[in-house]
Write a structure and sequence with these properties.
Number of domains: 2
GO molecular function: 2 iron, 2 sulfur cluster binding; dioxygenase activity; metal ion binding; methyltransferase activity
Order of helices and strands: EEEEEEEEHEEEEHHEEHEEEEHHE
Strand content: 25-35%
Shape: globular
CATH topology of the largest domain: Naphthalene 1,2-dioxygenase Alpha Subunit, Chain A, domain 1
EC number: 1.14.13.178
Keywords: 2Fe-2S, Dioxygenase, Iron, Iron-sulfur, Metal-binding, Methyltransferase, Oxidoreductase, Transferase
Protein name: Aromatic ring-hydroxylating dioxygenase subunit alpha
Bound molecules: FE2/S2 (inorganic) cluster, fe (ii) ion
Strand order of the largest sheet: 12-18-17-16-15-14-13-19
Pfam family, one: Rieske
Helix content: 10-25%
CATH class of the largest domain: Alpha Beta
Length: about 350
């Protein structure tokens, strides 16, 4: 059965890194990709393999939107079409002669997305909530995790690890019981936490000084996106979107977008610096634990033991397993449950 993972949109590059004269080599789901901008400045993503003798196109050069292969100089335009074969026709530009392996790509919200199938399951990539709302400021981080898509997304919406891995920075161990409603429908999992107040670690004094219950909702959108919302007392709010791009079976790139509204603090230059620094610390801690986890999995295999506190993990991995087996997530039964666990 063919995996359905290739029918989704994945970030292949940030818009800002793909200047007109750049050629990028990327990899998604084990597919080698070359990325460049065509004559109309629109991005083009192709298999990183020349049609002629299989040279790596990403080692070629782009000029005025045309990509030249480094081996015999075949030239491709921004639609992925072959437009010149120097040894056959001389250097003059010829008619479009062939269609190469170009993939669908869309530039949106500062990212270039690609779909490796000609039948994407959605017409557009996920739109990040509040991304275009001027009230919010933004911080973006990009990191490589040596672990699978499933283990990365599980981590990004896992609460119990935070008191151990991120102790102090993000959450303190309090031995408090947390309750949540978990709902799964059509590849979307929504988790609404009901009684959270002790989760802001060393910045609690600023973010939640009276230790009131705050709004906390986690979302997972199949196959690779998590979106976490914290709404603090007053109007302050921050949202973290993590897009995990599976590079191979054991490596992922994670694009983290933090949108925040901290009132007047939004305009203080220190705020952005601090959020970026704290977020990177948290991500470094997750990378450490996940990289180690993968070394153990490689040695002993991935066999997990699970309790009822792992319900969310169970739901996400069921969805990813279904996709790997060629099943669309809406084929799985809808679920709605309450969970409690201790943090
Ligand atoms: S291999 Fe690309 S032009 Fe020959
Ligand atoms: Fe974490």
């Amino acid at each position: 059965m063919n995996s359905l993972l290739q029918h989704y949109w994945y970030i292949v590059a940030e818009s800002s890194e793909l200047t007109a004269d750049k050629v990028l080599a990327r990899q998604i789901l084990d597919e080698w990709l070359v990325v460049f901008r065509g004559e109309d400045n629109k991005p083009c993503v192709m298999r990183d393999k020349c049609l002629h003798r299989c040279a790596r196109l990403s080692k070629g050069e782009v000029s005025k939107g045309l990509l030249t292969c480094p081996y015999h100089g075949w030239v491709y335009n921004g639609k992925g079409q072959l437009v010149s074969v120097p040894a056959h026709f001389g250097q003059r530009k010829e008619e479009v002669m062939n269609v190469s392996h170009a993939f669908a790509c869309i530039e949106q919200e500062g990212y270039i997305y690609v779909c490796l199938s000609n039948k994407p399951l959605a017409s557009k990539p996920y739109a990040m909530p509040q991304f275009n709302n001027g009230r919010y400021k933004k911080v973006r981080l990009v990191n490589v995790f040596n672990n699978t898509l499933a283990n990365c997304v599980e981590n990004f919406i896992d609460i119990p690890h935070t008191a151990f891995v991120h102790q102090g920075i993000f959450r303190k161990k309090a031995n408090e019981q947390i309750k949540a409603k978990v709902k799964r429908e059509n590849g979307h999992i929504q988790i609404d936490y009901e009684n959270e107040k002790n989760n802001l670690g060393s910045f609690s004094w600023l973010l939640n000084p009276k230790k009131k219950v705050i709004f906390h909702q986690d979302n997972y959108y199949a196959p690779n996106i998590t979106h976490v919302i914290y709404r603090l007392t007053g109007k302050w709010e921050y949202r973290i979107t993590s897009q995990t791009v599976p590079i191979t079976n054991e490596t992922s790139i994670v694009y983290t977008e933090i949108c925040y509204d901290f009132g007047l603090w939004n305009y203080h230059p220190f705020t952005k610096w601090l959020i970026k620094r704290q977020a990177q610390k948290v991500i470094d801690q997750d990378m450490n634990i996940l990289n180690d986890q993968m070394t153990v999995i490689k040695k002993y295999g991935q066999k997990f033991s699970t309790t009822s506190a792992d319900l969310i993990h169970h739901y996400t991995s069921e969805i990813i397993d279904a996709l790997n087996n060629g099943l669309e997530p809406q084929m799985l039964p809808d679920q709605e449950k309450e969970i409690t666990f201790w943090v």
